[in-house]
Amino acid sequence: MKFRRKSAAQSTDEAADSSVDLEGQELGEDEEVLVHGPVDADDLDLDSFGDEAPPWVDLGSLLITPEPGMQLRMQVDEQSQRVQAIILTGPDGALEVMAFAAPRGGGLWDEVRPQIAADMARRGGTATEVDGRWGKELDCRITVQRGDGSPATQPSRIIGIDGQRWMLRATLLGRPAVDREAAEHWEAVLANVVVRRGKEPMAVGDQLPVVLPPDARPVS
């Protein structure tokens, strides 16, 4: 997916821009610039797309582009009616995405990763640090109950991505959690996420607010 990114000159009202493709290789000025998404909305000239804008689902703090065959759902707290997680589901698995306020200098993922691993251990599961596309991630296993009451092992991959005063936490479930090849199209969806942090002050660790689109399906 190609994006047009704001240049430093644009921020001072001078005309110059470059384009961004979320794949991971940088070329040159005035050429296509490939970056390792997700990306910050402040780095993009969203108005430049016009009628060629990607089929984003605008969730306020996040712009997400599901692939064909994926369904977008919301996990909503029944009492507060706040969205706790954004969930993309497909035939082979699911991707859960949450965004949080983070320090200006980044590093929140390094701080919370051991906490997630400790919580997994308290629940009787395991969390092993492995190297992934975005650096250190957690390969998790935990025992859950099936509908008939029998036990089953649920695998998951928890990915953390530090951005500009935000951190994105993504969890892969199902086959993408154990099969790297099957995870590629899910990772592509994650790489194409645009984060809209906003300028307002927020406490580190607070979840960025999510706006429910009219056709979203809330799930508890």
Automatic annotation (TrEMBL):
It comes from Nocardioides perillae. This is DUF3710 domain-containing protein. Residues 23-32 have a biased composition (Acidic residues). InterPro entries: DUF3710. It comes from the Bacteria. Residues 1-32 are annotated as: Disordered. Pfam families: DUF3710.
